[in-house]
Amino acid sequence: MLDFRRLFLSVGAPILGAVGSMWLVFTIMEADRNVLAQLMEYLGYAGLILGIFWPRAGFFFLIGISGYLDFFKRLLILAGDVNWNEIIDVLKVAPLTLVGIFVGLVIKRWLEGRFFSKGEWILFWTVTVFGSISVGLAYKESHNLFAAIAMSANTAVYVILIVVIPLLFETLEEIIKVLRLIVWVFIPVAIYGIIQHHFGLSQFEFEYIKSGYTSTIGNLYDIKPRPFSTLNSTHAYSIMMAALFILSTVFVFLDRRKSDFLMMWVVQSLIPLLFLYACFVSLARTAWVMAFLGFILTYVYQSKIRVISFYLSAIVTFMLIIFNAGWMLDNIDVAQKWLPTQTEFQEQAFRLGTYSDRLESLKNLTSNSQLWTAFGSRDIVAAGTKSRDRSYLAHDAISQAVVSYGFVGLGIAMVFASLFLYFVHLQIFRTVDPRSRIMSCGILSVISGIFITGIFSGSPLSVFPINLFFWLFVGSLIMISIYKGCRPPANRDHQF
Fold it and tell me: Does some domain include residue 161?
């Protein structure tokens, strides 16, 4: 019997590929627009098609390009004139690929005669509700449905990953392989940022900063431009380096009993040091805190007593910061005198003035009652900002959430976050296999680090690729500790 699938792969696919490649080259050569932008537009459509027909291949393609899309965005400067539409052509590659993966997985399940299980339906409706709320809030602001979808896409689309990960992968070992791939993909990103720190930015990077198509223009007015590597900003670079330091450290402890691969274990032990140094040279104090906090939490999360103690301490500390933000703001200059600022590096690394807006924002939560409305006070804050009234400043994640969603929205989000943490910790403590437990604690530490530090530095979930990997980590954690409940391999004794 003739196998049409094998015939297509052996004959049809190469012919279509050759014809498509010739058409692509001809189209790009004849176009009047930026050549690289047009190439990236086609790459986005290729990612969409790849995701639909080969979801797993599309997923690995998404991981591979995630650390480098913003680098291609900067290269547009070398390929000709740039406008916002061409910037969008580069940025939409990842969302298109992810949508293709999800559609492909749904079609695959339908063709196999089985659709979502009960657990998968719960995840699906969770994503649907989250996306609907994001679009609804954006529509409230823009009063245009298509504009609302575009505004919420960067924040909401990657939430699909909490459905995609359990559909794509079924075992702990598969998740570990995915997370290892992420570590290896971002090693060049770490190295390039270190090179930028020691040798400065390239000329085309300065040209892109000056173009006005980036938020890193403040780098031009600093003592020395801070590295951002192939990502869109120093903030994205520093947070990703901190996250990967935590993750790669977990792998070191996870594999330390593999005596047959001693040399590989030694090499792997150096990788966390690379990410830690990359995080350090970013001069982002928030990322430093995240790296330290995440490392400690990987240990803390393995004990019930330590978990309870940590959350109680975190709540008390956070409340003390909020209610004493005004006093801390008034005394920030006093604290600055105690820090070393003799060299240019020390001045950049230990400058406290950058925390002034965040402290004032937290102070406003307790001093300006107009910020607290049931469903958001964007109009009130916009009016206050227009009049340059600092009492309406919202510069941290909590005050931004109060302004955007109101205390009702913030309360609902806190309830869902609390329930998620409760069930995750419950499943971690029920896990018999130490390997699964360590991996779950490590992933949860990265998630916690991104979330906690994001409270004081603005929400990172609108920054690519932090948003992509945050939800990828959440999906992986759900797959390991809640949804699939991976079975422990025999005779493994791993302790952190």
Answer: no
Query: Residue 479: what are its φ and ψ, rounded to 5°?
Result: -65, -45
123 within a domain of the structure (yes/no) = no
Q: Chain centroid to CA 267: how far?
A: 26
Q: Is residue 242 part of a domain?
A: yes
**What predicted TM-score, i.e. pTM, was given to this entire model?**
0.81
Rg of the chain over all Cα atoms, to the nearest angstrom? 24
Backbone torsion region of residue 201, taken as left when φ is above 0, otherwise alpha when ψ lies between -120 and 50, otherwise beta: beta
What's the mean per-residue pLDDT of the chain?
Answer: 77
Is 107 found in the same domain as 214? no
Closest listed residue to residue 318, CA positions, set 114, 456, 141: 456
Domain boundary among 115, 149, 181: 115
Summarize pLDDT for 2-41 with one digit per residue, the tens: 444 455 445 555 555 555 555 455 454 445 566 777 788 8
Q: Do 320 and 397 share a structural domain?
A: yes
Residues above pLDDT 90, as percent of the chain: 16
Residue 446 has what pLDDT? 93
Give residue-wise pLDDT tens across range 49-89: 999 989 999 999 999 999 888 888 888 776 666 677 777 77
CA atoms within 13 A on the CB side of 369: 0
Alpha carbon distances (Å) from 151 to 122, 143, 268, 342 = 25, 12, 40, 44
285, 378: one domain: yes
Query: Which of 392, 377, 486 is closest to 439 using CA atoms?
Result: 486
Say whether both 322 and 241 belong to one domain: yes
For residues 46 and 184, membership in a common domain is answered with: no
**What pLDDT is stored for residue 493 in this prediction?**
38
* CA dihedral sign of residues 132, 133, 138, 143: positive
- Residue 267 belongs to a domain: yes
Asked whether 243 and 190 are in contact (CB, 8 A), the reply is no
Note down the domain range covering 86.
Answer: 15-115
User: Where is the domain boundary, 72, 89, 115?
Assistant: 115
Indicate the helix (H) or strand (E) that contains 118: helix 118-142
Instruction: Report which of 131, 125, 123 is spatially closest to residue 163, judged by C-alpha positions.
Output: 123
pLDDT per position as a tens digit, 334-386: 777 777 766 766 666 677 766 777 777 788 788 877 777 777 766 666 665 56
Task: Please state the domain count of the chain.
Answer: 2
Judged against a pLDDT cut of 80, whether residue 236 lies above it is answered with yes
